[in-house]
Amino acid sequence: MADQPDRASIEALHREAGVTERRGQSFLQRLGRFDQSFFIRMIVGFLLLTLAVAAAEVGLRYAAVLWEFHRVERDRPELASRDLAEDIRSIMLNEGGPVASRIVYPILERNFRRAGLRIAVEPSEDTRTAIERIYGFTPEGIPPDWPEGTFNQATLEVRADQACLACHADSQVGDALGTVTVRDYLDGRLDDWRDELPLTATVNLAKAGIHTVILFLLLRVLMAPLLSLRSAVARLSKGTSGLNIRAEVASADEFGELAHDLNSFLDRITELMAELRRTTHRTVTLNTRLTHLTRDTREQLERVETGLNEALPSDEAEWRARGPEGARLTRVLRELHELRHHVQGIESLEERLDDAADDGQRLLDRLLQDPDHQRSFEP
Asked: Across all residues in the chain, what is the average pLDDT?
């Protein structure tokens, strides 16, 4: 009868170990390698964040272009129109200036366009009449050729001074000889932004890649203690090596402190398990002694009961003739019989206690991975 609880307990322990091992394998398979879970998620997250910052930088650059156009450089066309008016005045003051202007105006237009500006030079009616009379041709200036789009504009009149009256005989000082118009188009700024965009994107992608590689190498170094700690915890979760596993303390940072704390915890658990095993062993020893004492007591009771049965008369009439003494002997025999049944109950409990102590000892040996003690308790 004592072997059956032992076999059942052993089978239960084996089933429990199998379930624990399967759970550990399932957990490890789901977790995968460290560089395929948390590590990769961190790298991918950092890369995506870097790309998001690069995209935000491009967007901020676009917003800066709009801000500069609408706020900072609103006066640019006005300053350019003043410079253009001065250039035209200088051309016209030279001898043959109206003739030379037909060559110089395209150059001016090209130079301003390279600067992102569009210009128009429109002579007044008095200027056309004076040049037709003196030089024999009609001045066209720079006709306005305005594209569609958002722009800032400045218009400035070129007025006559004393030196201009030599050609403009019909004009007076201060009269308008023509107008210059300068437009600064937003599309030109955006075209520059688009031209810079491929280079900016390439540089940002290169920076993101380099920073990601640096982060990868840095994490591989810094996370090595955590990898070792995870390996130790994974082996503990399998339950195949007992409590003899210890994590390597490879650094003095938080990971090293965590590994040290885990080792201290396992040491404490191991000490408690060893103390529990010693207590269990003492319990088994005491129970064995109690079993021997109970067996001796039962044997003595059987001998006393047998002796009393032999000493008492078998004749009922003689038994009654003894009176009170016979009644007391009968009561003593009955109490001895009941005491023998109690002793048998104690022996049955002792057997169950032995079985429970053996099962507990085997479980402790499995946790402590002590093969010598484990072999000593094999059924």
From this structure: 77
